[in-house]
Design goal:
This protein has 318 residues and is an alpha/beta fold. The chain contains 8 helices and 9 strands. The chain has a single domain, classed as 3-Layer(aba) Sandwich (Aminopeptidase).
């Protein structure tokens, strides 16, 4: 235990020497207000609003100096969207993942990748995944998952400011069509832009905007890489969070697609709430200071794995 605490102290001290670009409450709020706006109408795949969100993400990635992993930031695919029981299938929707990266500086470890991701889509006007009887009502998806997308953008900004410290390379992915069966992440692992064997960890953020008064932050899959449970527990406590860390219980978001390919994962969220998949999941209910706290936690974990020779390797879980 003393060794783990000393390691965390050294990591925190090390991070203190990084660039002073910070994750801010103001920027988190601005991202969420845009993503969960009435104009973007629930970010439904295949719509203009969804495409506008993609443009927003790409613009932010470019601003931070992130590079496209392929020729373009968009990894395009066609999505089979869910329909209500008894309704005819919809035509395949054109959508995409938004993918960017920063290369590590270690001549060997730069060929290993840490992925951090979040899905940017939501339910649009409702549909079969909605938890309400209200039809044709905007499902804003502020927590699910404007919150994760906002944190992705904020973490990307800070990692970019400290890219000289990277040993491993970091890939940033905003996934499309998660709400229709993890389609974006499934497309990525089926059509990987880097060899899957070189992906050492996938960190996923889905609903990170509603930190409760007990400061609970939940993690699934921490046992899929060496020392993950202890590390995430102790790091969270050092940042005044109360981590609920599961070794397995991988959960139901985009990291599952990677876990099924024998890739270590970490799924982070702040818990369920009554507004889940309902029109009431709005920006005014986001705990912005709490989301900043969670974002800092994820950033520090990510940078530990990306800036050190932390031993990585997949550990199967039930």
């Amino acid at each position: 235990m003393k060794k783990i605490l000393l390691f965390i102290f050294l990591i925190l001290t090390y991070h203190a020497s990084f660039s002073q670009v910070e994750i801010t409450e103001h920027e988190i709020k601005d991202h969420i207000l845009f993503l969960a706006s009435e104009k973007n109408a629930g970010r439904y795949p295949g719509t203009k609003a969804n495409r506008d969100v993609v443009k927003y993400i790409i613009k932010d990635f470019k601003k931070q100096g992130l590079l496209p992993l392929d020729k373009h930031y968009k990894q395009k695919f066609k999505a089979r969207l869910r329909v209500d029981k008894g309704q005819p299938e919809k035509p395949l929707a054109k959508t995409c993942n938004v993918v960017a990266y920063l290369e590590g500086n270690d001549p060997i470890l730069k060929n290993e990748y840490i992925i951090i991701g979040a899905h940017y889509d939501h339910l649009g006007m409702g549909g079969p995944s909605s938890k309400t009887e209200q039809r044709n009502t905007i499902h804003y998806g502020a927590d699910d998952n404007a919150s994760g997308t906002a944190t992705l953008l904020e973490i990307a900004e800070k990692v970019a400011a400290n890219k000289s410290e990277l040993k491993r390379s970091v890939i940033f992915i905003a996934f499309g069509a998660e709400e229709h069966g993890l389609l974006g992440s499934q497309y990525f692992v089926d059509h990987p832009l880097v060899p899957l064997s070189q992906i050492k960890l996938m960190i996923n953020m889905d609903m990170v905007g509603r930190l409760n008064t007990e400061n609970h932050v939940y993690m699934n899959g921490a046992g899929t890489f060496p020392g993950g449970v202890e590390f995430m527990q102790n790091l969270g406590e050092s940042l005044n969070l109360t981590p609920i860390v599961h070794a397995g219980s991988v959960g139901g978001s985009d990291h599952v697609s990677f876990f099924k390919k024998d890739i270590s994962v970490l799924g982070v969220h702040t818990g369920a709430h009554p507004q889940y998949h309902r029109p009431e999941d709005t920006a005014d209910l986001i705990n912005v200071p709490g989301q900043k706290q969670v974002s800092d936690y994820i950033y520090k974990a990510l940078m530990t794995f990306a800036t050190t020779d932390y031993k990585m390797g997949f550990i199967p879980q039930d």
